[in-house]
Design the sequence.
């Protein structure tokens, strides 16, 4: 896409603005029009030079200009003297409403025709002001020197920061848009300022349920979170400001993966939130003043976007000066309804330009990862993929060597399936706390009949020889019945240093294979560890969220082992006091707790027969040298077992999970 410098000057003038001591604000665009519509020859004229003298007078000593001043209007001697005094104050210098940037452009145009060094020096002084005003995190405040209140927020509102970035970008690309060439030292500062400005833009792109969307009109300078400005400008996602940010990002040549991902994500959001079938009508009085704005149904109307949308779900809202959100434009008073741009079409220019840009830079049309055995997933586009599902889809089937998918921190709302042909796969998170795979399916939501539970998983493993490490795997549906976080059906699967979060049926450890859970945190309410697998749980915390049952094994009749818990902590919410260690989903269930610390929430009888008297003869429930307030072996149900030292010896990791019990060959779980 060819860069178009003109779009950056499309500004929205909001409300009545104040400038101290010189003249009342006016809202016509004559000053702006002079800058942008006069031809080059005019800038040689005496009229242009006279206006230039005004521009020099209005420039504060710090280098910036106040906003909304019609600088072409003649000044009296008294006004000139007052301006000379105000130079010293540096008050009201800003980049809001195009201020400073447009004055610098005027000086550049007149310098090109006159070569008057005063104009060049004033321009360079303005640029120094811009560079000085930038925060260390790359953002710019609305006013500098800083003013208290929302003025110190990082300001995208009315394209304040984007206007700055576009100017810097011209210098970085060495275009001829500005007639003034920068000294080397200043050019280096410009390049650094642009680089960290882009970084700030990427960091402030809002994530909604883990998915990148758009930007707020202003962001907190410390936390980078969406922030409030005026009473009716609440934290929200902004269609208009976000559009100009994306146009800036799309103008960058050879964009990084992060920039490409930011653009793709924002465009997807624009498509998602666009409003069709609605037309904005204006009602005018006899002298041409707008007296009302109305939204009219019109199936042929072009797409529009709300100015403010809810951070949680993109719902448009509207406000009067009392700051109370309203659902429709008609609900707010005349003054704000008619005096503010509540709907805009700016995102359409992004959509119009996007297809050509996409052909050139689209992240998802790139070649396969450089190393097909070391793949990186990152939501910010810095990896090979932004989606775990996409990464798995593009791995080799039945590989001889292990494929590791490293997942950078983020909340990945994905329903992930590791298919049978994805054997020898490892999903490794950047950190257990911050690499989160989440989904919210549950029994009634899935609605596939009596077996709907088995479709509710967040992550499903059907392949052999899989490792899950440093992850949080969550079913976020809440207490709504059966809702699985992790389902494992296969053999030689290791889950290491992971959080498994949910309520009923959190972990479905099933199939006839062998599974190893090490250093994990597993929580739930009812039967939250269930299934038929041979599974060894070592040094895990098993946390009950309500009075119910921990395990519901369905061990096959011919299995030597079922669930074995060794060196685990069995804990609970503070108000939980009646929990069973297990009950038999199928009558040959096997579950053993060894050397575990049992909290006082464990019932003295320990085990439940699930109203299956026959299971008391066929199930095998046992303990060995547990400890804690919940360990009361003399009070356990009589059909459970306390292992002898000799019996306990067979419950070693090698005996339960090993393949080479009688040899020194390395076992599958020893290289984790």
Sequence:
């Amino acid at each position: 896409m060819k860069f178009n410098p003109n779009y950056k000057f499309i500004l929205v003038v909001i409300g009545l603005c104040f400038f101290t001591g010189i003249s009342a604000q006016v809202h016509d665009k004559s000053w702006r029009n002079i800058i942008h519509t006069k031809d080059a020859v005019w800038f040689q004229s005496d009229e242009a030079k006279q206006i230039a003298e005004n521009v020099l007078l209005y420039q504060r000593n710090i280098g910036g200009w106040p906003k909304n001043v019609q600088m072409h209007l003649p000044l009296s001697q008294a006004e000139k003297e007052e301006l000379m005094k105000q130079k010293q104050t540096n008050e009201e210098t800003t980049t809001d409403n195009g201020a400073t940037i447009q004055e610098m452009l005027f000086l550049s145009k007149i310098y090109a025709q006159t070569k008057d060094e005063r104009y060049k020096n004033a321009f360079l002084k303005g640029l120094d002001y811009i560079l000085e005003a930038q925060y260390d995190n790359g953002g710019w405040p609305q006013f500098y020197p800083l003013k208290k209140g929302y003025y110190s927020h990082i300001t995208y509102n009315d394209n304040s920061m984007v206007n700055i970035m576009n100017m810097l970008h011209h210098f970085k690309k060495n275009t001829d848009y500005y007639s003034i060439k920068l000294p080397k030292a200043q050019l280096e500062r410009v390049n650094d300022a642009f680089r960290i400005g882009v970084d700030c833009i990427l960091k402030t792109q809002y994530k909604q349920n883990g998915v990148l969307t758009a930007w707020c009109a202003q962001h907190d300078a410390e936390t980078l979170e969406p922030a409030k400005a005026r009473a009716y400008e609440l934290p929200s996602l902004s269609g208009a400001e976000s559009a100009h940010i994306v146009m800036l990002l799309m103008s960058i040549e050879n964009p990084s993966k992060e920039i490409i991902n930011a653009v793709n994500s924002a465009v997807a959001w624009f498509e998602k939130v666009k409003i069709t079938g609605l037309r904005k009508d204006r009602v005018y009085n006899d002298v041409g003043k707008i007296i009302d704005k109305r939204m009219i149904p019109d199936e042929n109307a072009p797409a529009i976007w709300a100015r403010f949308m809810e951070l949680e779900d993109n719902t448009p809202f509207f406000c009067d000066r009392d700051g109370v959100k309203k659902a429709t434009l008609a609900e707010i008073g005349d003054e704000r309804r008619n005096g503010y741009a509540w709907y805009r079409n700016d995102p359409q220019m992004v959509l119009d330009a996007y297809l050509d840009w996409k052909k050139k830079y689209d992240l998802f049309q790139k070649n396969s990862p450089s190393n097909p055995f070391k793949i990186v997933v990152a939501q910010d586009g810095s990896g090979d993929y932004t989606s775990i599902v996409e990464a798995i889809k593009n791995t080799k089937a039945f590989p001889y060597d292990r494929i590791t998918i490293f997942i950078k921190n983020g909340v990945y709302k994905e329903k992930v399936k590791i298919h049978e042909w994805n054997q020898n796969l490892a999903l490794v998170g950047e950190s257990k706390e911050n690499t989160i795979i989440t989904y919210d399916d549950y029994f009634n939501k899935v609605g596939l009949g009596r077996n709907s539970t088995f479709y509710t998983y967040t992550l499903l493993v059907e392949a052999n020889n899989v490792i899950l490490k440093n992850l949080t795997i969550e079913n976020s549906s809440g207490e709504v019945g059966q809702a699985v976080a992790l389902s494992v059906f296969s053999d030689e699967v290791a889950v290491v240093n992971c959080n498994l979060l949910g309520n009923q049926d959190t972990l479905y450890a099933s199939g006839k294979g062998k599974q190893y859970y090490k250093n994990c945190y597993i929580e739930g309410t009812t039967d939250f560890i269930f299934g038929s697998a041979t599974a060894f749980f070592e040094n895990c915390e098993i946390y009950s969220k309500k009075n119910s049952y921990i395990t519901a094994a369905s061990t096959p009749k011919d299995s030597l082992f079922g669930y074995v818990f060794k060196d685990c902590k069995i804990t609970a919410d503070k108000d939980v006091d009646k929990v069973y260690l297990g009950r038999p989903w199928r009558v040959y269930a096997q579950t053993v707790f060894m050397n575990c610390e049992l909290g006082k929430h464990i019932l003295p009888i320990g085990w439940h027969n699930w109203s299956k008297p026959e299971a008391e003869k066929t199930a095998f429930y046992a303990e060995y040298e547990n400890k804690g307030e919940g360990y009361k072996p003399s009070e356990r149900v009589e059909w459970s077992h306390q292992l002898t030292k000799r019996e306990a010896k067979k419950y070693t990791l090698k005996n339960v999970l090993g393949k080479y019990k009688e040899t020194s060959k390395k076992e599958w779980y020893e290289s984790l």
In short: The two ends are 49 Å apart (CA to CA). The domain at 213-366 is CATH 1.50.10.20 (Glycosyltransferase). The chain has three domains: 1-204, 213-366, 397-658. The chain has 16 helices and 36 strands.
